[in-house]
């Protein structure tokens, strides 16, 4: 009897796409409401593109983890194609969130200061990015380290960047994506350490 493939969770995918669109709309509306006079169409478009980075990581990671968890708990294994995605996803997602965090350091160049002061401010603003880059390099071949390191990074971002109710959007843009990167490293560490095919799958006879 052939093993049936687990169908993709289309219902979850539709819900996550809807949440992505609602999140984009809500965050852009908040920016427009704060300063409607200076918000031009190209600024709104640029803001949508930038915000799409962490939100895609957030909802995409949820879908990958939910699909992998469903397969792992139902069958005891993860199919090879999904296993490759799980292995690459936390590393690529970490690179993207580091680039996203680095974008906020570009604001220092709008200040009236000497080149040396601007460079110092740029480096100071990039301390979180440099820290996560160091963690990623150390965890590249050690998913267990990646799980612990990005779990700690998510906790630190919560402490420093979610101090009041007005900073709650930072949960969507920084904290949750980083915690889900930790979750992807966990899946790479735990779920892919076992064979990606059922242990009782009969060997195919040679022709």
What does this structure look like?
By secondary structure, this protein is an all-alpha fold. It has one domain. Helix content is 72%, strand content 0%. The relative contact order is 0.13. Residues 1-7 and 196-207 have low confidence and may be disordered.
Spatial extent as radius of gyration? 20 Å
End-to-end span in angstroms?
Answer: 19 Å
Pick out the low-confidence regions. 1-7, 196-207
Sheet with most strands: none
What is the molecular shape?
Answer: globular
Overall structural class, as computed from helix and strand content, comes to: mainly alpha
Percent helix, as a range, is over 70%
Q: Proportion of β residues?
A: under 5%
Please give the count of helices: 7
The count of DSSP E runs of length 2 or more, i.e. the number of strands, is: 0
Oligomer: single chain
Number of domains: 1
Q: Report mean pLDDT, rounded to a whole number.
A: 86
The H/E string reads: HHHHHHH
Labels describing this entry:
disordered N terminus, 207 residues, mainly alpha, disordered C terminus, 7 helices
Blueprint (SSEs and pairs):
Blueprint: H1 10-34, H2 41-75, H3 80-103, H4 115-125, H5 127-139, H6 143-161, H7 169-190
Helix pairs in contact: 1-2, 2-3, 2-7, 3-5, 3-7, 5-6, 6-7
In short:
With about 210 residues, the protein is mostly helical.
């Amino acid at each position: 009897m052939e093993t049936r493939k687990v169908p993709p969770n289309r219902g979850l995918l539709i819900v996550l796409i809807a949440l992505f669109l609602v999140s984009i709309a809500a965050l852009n509306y908040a920016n427009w409401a704060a300063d409607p006079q200076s918000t031009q169409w190209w600024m709104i478009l640029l803001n949508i593109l930038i915000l799409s980075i962490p939100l895609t990581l957030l909802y995409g990671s949820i879908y990958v983890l939910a699909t992998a968890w469903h397969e792992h708990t139902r069958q005891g294994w993860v199919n090879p194609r999904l296993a490759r995605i799980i292995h690459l996803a936390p590393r690529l997602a970490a690179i993207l969130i580091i680039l996203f965090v680095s974008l906020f350091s570009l604001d220092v160049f709008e200040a009236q200061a000497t080149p040396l002061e601007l460079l110092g401010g740029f480096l100071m603003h990039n301390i979180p990015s440099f820290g996560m880059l160091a963690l990623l390099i150390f965890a590249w071949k050690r998913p267990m380290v990646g799980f612990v390191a990005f779990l700690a990074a998510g906790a630190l971002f919560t402490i420093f960047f979610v101090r009041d109710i007005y900073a709650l959007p930072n949960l969507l843009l920084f904290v949750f994506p980083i915690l889900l990167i930790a979750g992807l490293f966990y899946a790479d560490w735990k779920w892919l350490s076992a064979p990606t095919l059922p242990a009782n799958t009969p060997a195919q006879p040679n022709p």
